[in-house]
Write a structure and sequence with these properties.
The complex is a heterodimer of chains A (about 450) and B (about 180).
Chain A: H1 3-20, E1 41-44, H2 68-78, E2 108-113, E3 123-127, E4 136-140, E5 147-151, E6 155-157, E7 168-170, H3 171-182, H4 211-221, E8 230-237, E9 240-246, E10 253-259, E11 262-263, E12 272-277, E13 285-289, E14 294-302, E15 315-317, E16 329-331, E17 345-349, E18 360-364, E19 371-377, E20 384-386, E21 389-391, E22 398-405, E23 412-415, E24 432-440, E25 449-451, E26 454-458
Helix pairs in contact in A: 2-3
Chain B: E1 2-3, H1 5-22, H2 31-37, E2 40-56, E3 60-74, E4 80-88, E5 90-91, E6 97-100, E7 114-122, E8 131-134, E9 141-147, E10 152-154, E11 167-168, H3 169-180
Parallel strand pairs in B: 1-9
Antiparallel strand pairs in B: 2-3, 2-7, 3-4, 5-6, 7-8, 7-9, 9-10, 10-11
Classes of the chains: A mainly beta (about 450), B alpha+beta (about 180).
Amino acid sequence: MKLWNWISCSAALAGAAWVLLPTRGEAWVVIGTGLNTTQRDFRIYNNFTDSTANDNVTPDPNFPGSLGAVMAIWKACAEWGSRLHGNGNGDPSQPGDIGSGGANFDAAFAGEANGVGSADDNILSEISGSSGGVLAYTELPSEDGWRIRFYSTWQWADGPGTGIGSGTIDIQGVTTHEFGHALCLGHTSVPGATMGATIIGNGVAMRSIEADDIGGVQAIYGVASANKPVITGVTVNGSTITITGAHFAPTGNEIWFRTSGQTLDTILNPLTVLAGQVSTAGGTQLSVGTPPLADDGDILVKVPGLGFDTLSNAWPADINAGPGCNTPGNTCVQSPNSVSPFGAGMGYTGSTSIAQNNTTLLCYDIPPLKLTIFYYGRTANGSYPFGNGTRCIDGPLYRLLPAVTSDNSGTATRVIDLNNMPPGGSMIPGSTMHASAYYRDPAAGGAFFNTADVLSWIWCP
Amino acid sequence: MKLSLPRFLVAGAALAASASLAWASIQRFDLASMLQASDNAIVGTITHKETIRIDHPVDGKELYFTSLTLEGKSLKDGTNVTIDVCFGGGFIDATHGVHNSEAPSDDDQKLGNKVVAFYRWEPNMGGEHAGNALMAWHGGLYRTFETRGGKTIVQGRGDGYAIPVNVELGELTTQVKALAKPK
């Protein structure tokens, strides 16, 4: 981030302070010039450690393919959207009313990241520790990107109901507030506004933005333009997606999708984009084939131009047949090795869809240029000494051969080819997979090898 | 700094505005709960300021923390105190740093400011950075000014803060001592 950006933010703050003094009805504060359409993506690195942060396992048709903290954060960001997100349902605290901003602002759910990213990568995640009564914070200025962190000392809850449990703090409500910072709003003196004051109760009341918050987002981005592209429906027929709406450009439309799996936290654009699309029916329809890397999520349409009003609202789309694919999660322990006191971790790219067959396993924080073998099993309830570490995957074990060699940065990768699995190790929709890797580590001594933690998921169709 | 009455009123108005600017996702405190949660409350002068960057294998890259060195006295017992208090965000130079939504404003962090501060030891403020955390970051730092009559006024920040309204330093000290007294 550049200091002059911060200085200009400070100047805006100072100016806004004086604007506040004579006005009582509108107290919103602007702390930046707004996110242009290249900064509308948001992702989640789902490292929340509380079980209550990811215990919502009920799918929601308005937020397809997500559960737990991911769904809660998606709802929060969708609340700032220009119009109702789908039919607006999904939050018992504001039935039929998610999507209340009414401005030339919409955010694009870009799925999950594989790390916390830098301060400009537009990722929300938990951070360890505590700091004297701070719940969460946003790193600014946001015009060139932002980052939101939640302190792990608090017990975070994913809802979705309004009774989130004694002593817990609502992820969705706090995210709604923090995302207001990311889109360049400061704090308001209006009681009850999401951008106001200290946390309201456990945060549930902050899920719904109020008139003052709406005034703020409209002040930055303008009231939703009459020419802004609008999506009013999405239908999926096999591998064809048809988007209906209005104000699509005759040519040169971009269609934005969530990318499946975890995307690299440092990737420049985490969205899957179909560029150069031609509309039909007088700019009211777009039909495209489903991109291989796209997954359940929001669809947005970007028409040519640079203005805030060149991006449509976000519309939820369940583009994969059958139930949504769940997100792999990490379990077991990371055993310290010769290059990391925290040990090696497992990650992935691609999806957990059998049909897409595009999963790649990653094992990172291992010694460079060392032999690595990925392996998996169907259960992982154990805790077995294994090399210099601990193996949690129960037998029988299946090895993904041939072995690979880690790269210079200490990361090994292995493509899973579902059509060529080890004998007895085939996977079908509904199968559980627990994957890990073991690697040579001569510098550590001991057994001279070690193993990573475990990545677990259920394959979807 | 000595202020005339009109300037005092303007300062109060600016204070009310700045309070609304500074609020964010922090815990709600009053003076009693703040003292209960803090290790100490001091009045002192900011004599040094430094920002560091931490790149942590788990908590992530680009974690910035700023520490302010305060030299002053404990409001609880009057003992001399020199201490570093820390909060998230800050800039190492013109191109390396972040502003943190919960950090004190640049004006509040200026060297030479006489401030009241609440802090407590935190073993990990993220990235395994240990230090005396400024309580609620911006919510734990209060500027002072002197009236024409020579009184030191501590600037309140509004509802939800440990010091919600302007208060004379002597009166605040009395309140702190009373609240800190073992029951």
